Amino acid sequence: MFLYHFSEESDIKIFHPRKNLHHEHLPPVVWAIDEEHSVNYLFPRDCPRVIFRRSERMSKEDELHFFRDSHADTIIAVENDWLEQISNTKLFRYTFPKESFEMEDGIAGYYISTVSVEPLRIEPIENLLLEIVKRKVELRFTPNLYPIKESILSSSIDDYSIIRFRNAKQ
User: Which residue, 154, 164, 158, is CA-closest to 53?
Assistant: First the structure.
């Protein structure tokens, strides 16, 4: 099994552990994501998004409400204003061996390493929208993410990620 890191930088030779202000309880670490959740990071770095997944733990009412018209198990919502940037951003997927990593959050697919990590390979991703839809997720665009975020947080959905929300429209 491999882990990944996505970046707009194409030339990172080695990833060194760094402190993360949003995870002050952790020592400096290198972050990685598993394959299942890697679609969450096929966006420009600062793009706010809400991702939620179907699970057996959600209520039938919430499954009907959030997934009524969808055959996808994962739905990603992004603000309309980000479409052009998503369309024009090139990312690089860095592949890591799993050996030096430990799971930080199984629901989110986050792994951390307290030692420096050299990527096994670097692959460009030039068409993010195509790469996202190839993952069989549903991608939704909306004028504002706040209603979706609030609905998810007040639901029984427990498999969700809210990424870069500080950049969402107020």
Answer: 158
